[in-house]
Design a protein that fits this description.
The complex is a heterodimer of chains A (270) and B (217).
Chain A: E1 8-18, E2 21-32, E3 36-40, H1 47-54, E4 62-67, E5 70-71, H2 77-86, E6 87-90, H3 101-111, H4 116-129, H5 145-157, E7 163-167, H6 175-191, E8 195-200, H7 203-209, E9 212-217, E10 220-226, H8 227-232, H9 237-243, H10 246-258, H11 264-269
Parallel strand pairs in A: 3-8, 3-9, 6-7, 7-8
Antiparallel strand pairs in A: 1-2, 1-4, 4-5, 9-10
Helix pairs in contact in A: 3-4, 3-5, 5-6
Chain B: H1 2-38, H2 44-54, H3 59-70, H4 85-121, H5 126-136, H6 138-154, H7 157-163, H8 173-182, H9 186-216
Helix pairs in contact in B: 1-4, 1-6, 2-4, 3-4, 3-7, 4-5, 4-6, 4-7, 6-9, 8-9
The chains are: A alpha/beta (270), B mainly alpha (217).
Chain lengths: 270, 217
């Protein structure tokens, strides 16, 4: 049985193949309690796959994920649920069930057989904490994308997970909603009880929020370290190019060339 | 008065038979549809296409097949079910299963991945997964049940062949319409047709309200 409380999660030599093609290649890094670890990388780098493997939603080809002294990838199916119950994974577009936001927040608590009276109290506290009062009784199709993300985050946190994984928590939402989510994450870090792991495309956000950063590129972990190591003292050429935005420009140029277009502005940069 | 009372009993019989057949078909088709919709396997497309093709299966051909099965010379002839309400229920069941299963599979195949992942990620069990997949797809599943019930209530070929259109025993409202038309009682047939349409309308209306509630609740 994996402990529901652990201070560190360590990924070692993780491989994942999608239709025989490697989507993750020997990925290894660690994330610690009370710190935000940002997993950065371009589209298709393997960030979502990595998170799904950690949450046991996808089966790794090989490798290990250590938490509380146990390899969670080697857990028998009966214990896989206990592992998932000790962590929370918020997907890029959180799926809210066809019920009110308030009822959605109660779902993970009901799954853990928490008494009704306690559920009501925890949910009400979360509604206040995350400013969901106005949408608490609304159905998912009546809430905005930003509110949906906030509700998804609130639902993930009502269970007080030891590890919170967020896949692009502020992608495609307005700056105000994005700011609110960043504040919640900072508050959560300040409480010091949770390992926070998030992916982001936004390098400025990674600089603002993260304590530690891991760069994934084409399924490989290029470099991992503190935020300052990665952004200010990159040891790897790919890391340097990525944090300077050069890889982004190269990717755009490749996409343009694939489409038969070659914008002069892009050519002049290279 | 007598005619009215006869018609009421025929109408009641039709509704009971069609509702029973739809309920049995739903009990088989919904779990089957959920199971198949949630899984990816080799040959799934073929099976889904087969279900979709059988959605338009002609009731009269189904009637013949069930007749061959239940007739004295048939493999299930010893059960003595031919020309009984049970025979009609069996035929309507087989007509209805592909409709409900097909609609369920199509809805679940398109919408289940996120529901499954979210339920598991929230710490749910396999039972929670099935419950959520079912409840999140309740509206399209109910649509399937409604279409199936409508098909059963309005079909005539299968009921005529396996039920035998025996007055006060296996005569449904649609087979009675055929009989009246054959007897030259066109106005009576038309009246019965109107009763069938109005009844179907109210039943579908009630099911639609149920469906809307499922969407809102």
């Amino acid at each position: 049985m994996v402990s529901t409380s652990f201070d560190e999660i360590r990924v070692e030599g993780l491989y994942f193949h999608y239709e025989k093609k490697p989507a993750l290649k020997e990925v290894g890094f660690s994330a610690k309690k009370g710190r935000i670890t940002a997993v950065i990388g371009p589209n298709g780098a393997g960030k979502t796959t990595l998170f799904k493997v950690i949450d046991l939603l996808a089966r790794a080809s090989s490798g290990r994920v250590f938490a509380g002294g146990k390899d969670v990838l080697a857990l028998p199916p009966a214990e896989a649920r206990a592992w998932r119950q000790s962590i929370s994974f918020v997907m890029q577009e959180p799926y809210l069930f066809n019920m009110s936001v308030r009822q959605n927040l109660a779902v993970p608590l009901k799954m853990r057989k928490i008494p009704r009276s306690k559920i009501d109290r925890i949910v009400q506290d979360a509604i206040i904490k995350f400013g969901l009062g106005e949408i608490a009784e609304k159905k998912p199709f009546r809430v905005s994308s930003g509110e949906r993300k906030r509700a998804g985050l609130a639902r993930a946190l009502v269970t007080e997970p030891a590890l919170l994984i967020l896949d692009e928590p502020t992608a495609s939402i307005d700056p105000e909603a994005s700011y609110l989510i960043e504040q919640y994450l900072k508050d959560l870090r300040a409480e010091g009880r949770t390992i926070i792991m998030m992916s982001t495309h936004d390098l400025f956000q990674a600089r603002r929020l993260a304590d530690d950063v891991a760069l994934l590129f084409k399924g490989e972990l290029i470099e991992a370290g503190t935020k300052d190591d990665i952004f200010d003292r990159p040891r790897n050429e790919i890391t340097r190019k990525f944090v300077n935005g050069e890889i982004l420009v190269e990717n755009v140029r490749e996409s343009c060339e694939a489409l038969g277009r070659a914008p002069s502005t892009l050519r002049s940069t290279g | 008065m007598g005619w009215q009372s006869d018609m009421t009993s025929v109408l009641g019989f039709s509704i009971i038979v069609s509702a029973t057949a739809t309920a049995i078909a739903a009990a088989v088709a919904i779990p089957l549809g959920i199971f198949m919709g949630m899984r990816e396997f080799k040959g799934k497309a073929v099976i889904v296409n087969l279900f979709n093709s059988f959605m338009g299966f002609p009731p009269v051909v189904m009637g013949v097949l069930i007749y061959l099965l239940l007739s004295k010379a048939g493999p299930l002839g010893f059960l003595g079910l031919l020309y009984t309400p049970t025979a009609i229920i069996i035929a309507q069941c087989f007509l209805c299963i592909p409709i409900i299963a097909g609609i369920t599979i199509s809805s679940i195949t398109n919408h289940s991945k996120k529901i499954i992942e979210t339920t598991l990620a929230l710490g749910g069990s396999r039972t929670d997964v099935y419950e959520n997949v079912f409840s999140e797809n309740l509206v399209p599943i109910l649509s399937g049940v409604m279409v199936g019930f409508g098909q059963n209530l309005s079909e005539v070929g299968a009921s005529m062949i396996v039920g035998g259109n025996i007055s006060f025993f296996t005569q449904t409202i649609t087979t009675a319409i055929v009989t009246f038309t054959g007897q030259g009682r066109a106005m009576d047939a038309l009246l019965l047709g109107t009763v069938l349409i109005v009844t179907a309308f109210f039943i579908m209306f009630a099911l639609t309200i149920l469906q809307l509630r499922a969407r809102r609740s």
